[in-house]
Design brief:
4 copies of one chain form a homotetramer. The model of chain A has no long low-confidence stretch (mean pLDDT 94). Chain A has a 7-stranded mixed beta sheet, with helices on both faces. Chain A has a 4-stranded parallel beta sheet with strand order 7-8-6-9, sandwiched between helices. In chain A, helix 5 links the parallel strand 4 and strand 5. With 342 residues, chain A is an alpha/beta fold. Chain A has 2 domains: 2-139 and 279-322, Rossmann fold, CATH 3.40.50.450; 140-276, Phosphofructokinase domain (Rossmann fold, 3-Layer(aba) Sandwich). Helix content of chain A is 40%, strand content 17%. Chains A and C meet through helix 6 and strand 9 of A and helix 6 and strand 9 of C.
Chain lengths: 342, 342, 342, 342
């Protein structure tokens, strides 16, 4: 049998590790051959392919990005999208499709699988770690590691100048990166999209930190918002996801802190460096295991399913269920880390 | 109430993060005060203490090691050990003891708690990740990261000289570090203590890798053993745990590979660098949450329990149960990664 | 004799290494004692001090920032500035002052030394590496390392999405960080303040890179400017030096590239992470040797001098000379690396 | 013209950066074409080649090792070695040869160039930094960085257990890696091959460090020797250069320290990890500039010369001179860092 592979959405460290594992096990254990579809759903939609074989995947384990490219193409919005995909799968004699992606990419896979009988297996990918049904997604640990190292570095600058440093990290709808890197980096305030923040409370924490003769670090997720609708929107720049950003919460917040506390504040927007480069050991492990189990699911004919991490086990869940709702930070967990604020 | 804290056994990145979390939450939420006992069980046994307060734990989150020292002292083997501990706890008015350690340290805590009614709460610590009842222990992710980075580096040397590189990593009884770092580092052979290895099979994998025009990396856990009792023991050197090592499996294996395949082979023994230095973001997160939940257990009067990771939740389990058996690598998991051998 | 030490200007990895070396050698070899003046020239101006001794400098070698604080205070602009400094030096019985800083801080030291006979020795500090009379300054290697690692990471994101990635690095008047990190990171375009750039030429290089089926990375120094005065200024945000920035050349350039080439372009502004955190081994070596030689200069009574790196030797040069002109990138050197553009 | 390139001796981070620079500039500026000779002098001796072109060198800048392989083959010891080389150069129509290597590899180039008129240009490569006529060689900064990071990590283990940690680093004849990493890592004793050490003095420093309530780190170069011929040789293991090691000075020293001071001591032998993996930014810069200047030398017909770093300039020196004597650590420089011992 020939198996197709595609990667959709924003790139994420570990994509290549998934591809390598799928191909290695598929060829060696199941005697499959492989074809890569380029740039996410654009590949099967337009019939753009790239060869995939064991030699093609050698050496890619430690490399960030995806060797088969990615895009945000949604084939369900394209004219005759489903028919064109089916035609291209037939044309390339593809019997099953492993789709590696986030909510959008997997949502298409769920529809194609459940409604049109196209043989799809899903592998979850979201650097924000906001897909329900899996404990973690690969790429997240790498992003948290990069953000934590940056926060470690910023502490010494903050201390030397007794300034507030506001660090804006990824997280449009879910605050996982902010929460983990903020905690690991010893931040004094962590703000997440799940809970609107009160600038006065932030300033109180900042002031309390200065009273202890230390300089505060404020970690704020890109998607965090103040409670009182007071944030003036700025347009034009782009966020870490490649979308035009409506607001730079980090810069806005630094100015508010300066204005209200009289202390100097600076902003660092980590941006795209959080999503590139070599994956952490944890992410290589997780991505590889996802790949191995995804090709097992293909072999079992278990379509419409997504692999997921449950404790230390890889399990399978219906894609449709897994993408039905976002996994956000539980208020209880956010409260737990609040002991370190201020 | 005054709470005592001690850290026992080999040091491990994240110990300081646990201590900091215990003290921060204990002081701020429960109004406890704290005392550190120096060098594991030696502290309460001999009454050696160190002050612990919020200022004392500032800045220690990213630092490896333990600010209160560690040792392998077993008070149950000391004359009147239990009585001396009880006397010292009384003398310092300590109402509860948080014991951070591995099998040995926690085994003592279980006995003191279950048999003598001394108020102990446990926090699991083993760089080898071999404590059952918890998905992961802190320090393990850091060790795996360091080993993976070393393997990444050794690949280029192996390739440039077309040599076999044998990397000996920690793991006396359990192969978790070898398994995770070997997989993450793209090793061509991974050998663990749980399964005796066949040198001929290792040589077959090595030869197969050379046939693909690449140089092989062999990752071997310190405690791995050949199948046929053929390993000649060497004495004198010390292993990564600080014990005299009975055998240097890495060096022995490299020589066997050279002898049998005719290819040059070199050994690198990673040793103590795996256990020192700043903890990874994952380990800081896990260690901090362990600390927060351990002090909650103290507050709940839930003694004789150990905090543990279960998926993404921190739960409590009886210490005695958790230390009853070693968590080793499941044969099915080892088989799963075997697809990358050769 | 008592020796005063101060650190002025923006913080820089290696400042603590200098302080430690001065104190270690001063105490052990010359039997001096020490006093730290807080926050650059504010310390001697206002008489704000901090104790400095061997125990105080233990463990600070790997730590970024400065334990005695920094500021941009210029005492020559303060009322009776020189007299107040002299009074405070007398009051604290300080016989010599080691001043660690950049053009501004050292300029004051030169004036105080040459015109007022105050015993100053200088240690050069500029993360931008733009002080003449020394081959390198500490902090620069660390900044280049951080920027290079970021560029390494951004390559994979650029490739996965076939986008242009513009990376804005430090360098207001001199392009050393851009030049070194751009070359080390394999950038396809490097733009420096010393030479106004032609956006059409930049777009030609970008297009040429895409033709080779690869995605371009453009490294631009904060202070680089287009040739034709076409850059629209934006106000409000702050640069990596903590000043209000008049223009965000990175964001502006990405938009121009998008507009002219039709390719997607994203910007990453590295900002303050370039100047914080643990110094590289090279910077620790250089900073330590600067410190050792600075205290030798004090001992020799060689005031008005600055230590400098010349090849592998530490030499002394008149501070006044060393700060007289900026060390910028030579056109020949810039031309040399141009072979990698496009 | 066609230019040949070879890399000889032990691998070293930066070799690929040199090759890439040579090819990029050679093709683009001078219209040369290229051929790689495999495995050092074995390539031209046996006529084993590999294609070298701009596409072949894409992406290799950050990769350790050498894409054209290396060996320690000495063609002057082979039968008709010179004639066979000349024949192969003729056969492949190679007009000039860039030889990248250390003392041995370049020594051959000097002989071939000076005595046989074969057109060779040299690029110095020694991870030990022990080639005279150049301030630094690439690879050295990477090795020092890896060793420093290891020492940073070992400090926390030493402190937690109040043990001596002996770290054995590369350096058979010259102590540059020990000196730089020991200083940067804050070691308490540094031992180099240039000066025989007195074990009693080492123990005195160790004891003095413990008296200050800290645990000592002893950095020892592989080639360091005790003063009194008292070291018992051990055979069998291999050193970081791939040679059978006659002595493991690190393990021997740890045992002596334990015996004489009664303190626990452990050894870590860093080994091959020091020479593999991605080069530091500094090494990429230096290696690239060496490559650019080497191909300029070819273009100028300036054969028998080697490129070298002099301050921040790349200069040319006669190969024969440059390889005539080893660059060892100056006693004055070693004395300078002695202030940190104990």
């Amino acid at each position: 049998m020939r198996v197709g592979v595609l990667t959709g959405g924003g790139d994420c460290p570990g994509l290549n590790a998934v591809i390598r594992a799928i191909v290695r096990k598929g060829v060696q254990e199941y005697d499959y051959d492989f074809i890569g579809f380029r740039d996410g759903w654009r590949g099967p939609l337009e019939g753009v392919t790239v060869p995939l074989s064991i030699p093609a995947v050698r050496g890619i384990l430690p490399r960030g990005g995806t060797i088969i490219g990615s895009s945000r193409t949604n084939p369900l919005k394209a004219e005759h999208g489903v028919r064109r995909i089916r035609d291209n799968l037939d044309r390339y004699e593809v019997g099953a499709l492993v789709t590696i992606g986030g909510e959008d990419t997997l949502g298409v896979a769920a529809t194609l699988s459940d409604e049109y009988g196209i043989h799809c297996v899903g592998v979850p990918k979201t650097i924000d770690n906001d897909l329900s049904a899996t404990d973690y997604t690969f790429g997240f640990d790498t992003a948290v590691g990069i953000a934590t190292e940056a926060i470690d570095r910023l502490h010494t600058t903050a201390e030397s100048h007794m300034r507030v440093l506001v660090v804006e990290v990824m997280g449009r709808h879910a605050g996982w990166i902010a929460l983990h890197s903020g905690l690991a980096g010893g931040a004094n305030v962590i703000l997440i999209p799940e809970q609107r923040f009160d600038v006065d409370q932030v300033c109180a924490w900042v002031t309390s930190r200065f009273r202890a003769s230390h300089a505060p670090i404020v970690v704020v997720a890109e998607g965090a918002m103040p409670a009182h609708g007071e944030m003036v929107l700025k347009d034009g720049s782009q966020d870490s996801y490649g979308h035009v950003r409506l607001s730079g919460v980090g810069e806005w917040l630094a100015k508010e802190i300066e204005r209200r506390t009289g202390k100097e504040a600076r902003t660092t927007v980590l941006g795209h460096v959080q999503r590139g480069g070599t994956p952490s050991a944890f992410d290589r492990w997780l991505a590889t295991r996802f790949g191995l189990h995804a090709i097992d699911a293909v072999h079992d004919g278990d379509f419409g399913k997504m692999v997921a991490l449950n404790g230390t086990d890889i399990v399978r869940v219906p894609i449709a269920e897994a993408t039905a709702r976002l996994k956000t930070v539980d208020p209880a967990l956010y409260a737990e880390v609040g002991v370190f604020f201020g």
